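Protein data:
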Amino acid sequence: MPEGNERFDVVVVGCGNAALCAALAAKENGASVLVLEKAPQEWRGGNSYFTGGLFRFAFDNVDEVFDLVGDMSDTEKSGVEIKPYTSGGFFGDLYRLTDNMSDPDLANTLIFNSLPTMKWLRTKNVRFVLASGRQAFKVGGKLRFWGGLVLEAVGGGVGLVDFLIERAEKDEIEIRYASKATRLIADRMGAITGIEVRGENGPYEIEADAIVLGAGGFQANTEMRCRYLGPDWELAKVRGTPYNTGEGIQMALEVGAQSFGHWSSSHTVQWDLGAPPFGDRKVGESFQKHSYPFGLIVNIHGQRFVDEGADFRNYTYAEYGRRVLRQPSRIAWQIFDQKCLPLMRDEYRIREVTKCASDTLKGLAEQMEIDVEGFVKTIEEYNAAVQDTEFNPTILDGKKTVGIDPPKSNWAQKMDAPPYEAYGVTAGITFTFGGLRTTKDSQVLDAENKNVPGLFACGELVGGLFYYNYPGGSGLMSGAVFGKLAGEGAARHAGKA
């Protein structure tokens, strides 16, 4: 336990992308900074560690993308096709997917700060590369990118965490592991003056001018999942860290912070059926199964229950995991034939995969242990409904089915090229959408929409940005944007900026 009274200008709670961006920004603006991480060092990085490291940002021309990557030859540049992704395009995607519920101030802040924040991350030695393996297919000799998502951190989520921690250490920011923040300390007027911590040797207190909460949502808290998300959510697998259990949100509520956002919804993906209850740091994000737009998804009765081709993968994947949770036994199977295999992501080829294969549909159903007659009938009806138009994986090609429910709106190819493959999936929750009401500068507000002096929040604790669904890559982007703003605001509150 630290001896004597400790004092820092800014204390940041959490050690993922958002929290580390807050710490770096506060330090950059002259504050003394301490990072508190509940997890042991071997679990550092929070949920960011389990991501693909993709960032969605607005850009008006492709040169802005190339500048972020750096060191690209003219030949390399000529081999890719990237369309501008304007702020209007980002707005359209965000509002379309959130049922027009996203808070306008937060949305504006996220979108208009996205490119500047990407440039800022580069100054912190975060390196980016074209997400060609995830977001592009080769067409006419060029890699054609789709879905408005083009860059990922080198090394994915693992690389992102390593870059940020390396920079924090270079900036001499102390990261204190196995140190759980338990209570915010406030004066009689409600201003935050410090924080209570439980470390390896017991509890202690730290004085601070400002606290930044970046400790994630409540997805790893079974009781909170059931309370806010509803029945059966205690049975969902957790895609990432087991340490995101909602204490940051709860501490803020205890000092009068206002809850905000879509508390009954979450980012939930199709996750390998055989995956452990929480994230596996060796496998990382590879338990996800995201090539379903080019195949079919059935439940144990052999029935389809979603439009697999409703939109690009990065616009549907965060929602379809919830659909799987509502299926009997919380199980689904993704079905592919040989035409699909060249389009499938690397995550289908890992050793730790739940897979069946057969030369016949009947044999495949028997291996999956699902309703054989129901499955064969589903595939036959689907094949008969497929329209004979051109298939193009880089656009919403309109190659659809007619006369079946649910339809397949794009990329509908007959399932007729054996051997067939099936991959078992269940629901894997990534993060929760409910959190705290904050200003566009990441200041936490109370029930009367007044600032809680000295309290800031970022990352998954920011409520009101995502409802129902979200555009892939906007989670890490919002973490970085609001993390940076929170750190700057905290330093300013401490009189340093």
Remarks:
- The longest helix spans residues 104-123.
